[in-house]
Amino acid sequence: MGLHRFAARVLGSAMVFVAVAGTLAGAPTAASAADNTPDVVGGTRAAQGEFPWIVRLSMGCGGSLYTSTIILTAAHCVPGSGTNTSITVTAGAVDLQSSTRITVRSTKVYENPRYNSTGAEDWALIKIASPINLPTIPPASSADNSGTFTIMGWGATREGGGQQRYLMKATVPFVDDTTCNGSSSYNGEVVPYAEICAGYMAGGVDTCQGDSGGPMVKKNSAGAWVQVGIVSWGYGCARRNYPGVYTEVSAFTSAIAAAAATL
Length: 263
Prior knowledge:
Residues 1-33 form the signal peptide. The N and C termini lie far apart (35 Å). It contains three helices and 16 strands. The longest helix has 10 residues, at 253-262. By secondary structure, it is mainly beta. It folds into two domains: 7-45 and 139-251, Trypsin-like serine proteases (Thrombin, subunit H), CATH 2.40.10.10; 54-136 and 252-262, Beta Barrel (Thrombin, subunit H), CATH 2.40.10.
């Protein structure tokens, strides 16, 4: 999979740097087993309007429209909770240079306070100054660990690559916790109650650096898109035996709703 967002994950007394999975995430680093950054690798261009609720954040992450005035993203993408007017949210266009894109500034940030203590539970909310009048995407109401998921982002399309101008997408299968946490993969680093793995154990398709915070989605039984995951971390991008690791949104629907109410 691709390099993922870069964030410090605390494991006991050791600090390990992790990157977001997939082809679309963060900044490049040396291609070592400790690299964890995501972007969408092995993907194709998304069509205009195909995923109207995805947004790009100026710090180099992705996000999704939880409501018209609140963005759901990853905790590792934000600097902490409080008043924050430094983030620009871009929405409404797959081309980040499009003249039709919508840009709005942030006003407040809520970082899940458990993220720094658990090294998991990687979610945050950003309040914006004015509504974005586009469709929103609801969180999955229950765990859905079957079939395939859709990932997307403006992150790198290869490990160590740069941000993309156009939104990319890919399809990845669910990977069970036993396989993902196996000795030839993450060896127990994945937190089952909070995280979900998706990707190909053979590698080749993933999120990557610059994709952090973006949504992993699927259609529910009614044919409507729901958000299953948030791009969180991984070792490199699209590497063999290292699928992307995503925040499992269904585990935090109540906590996210309660936090949104405070904004």
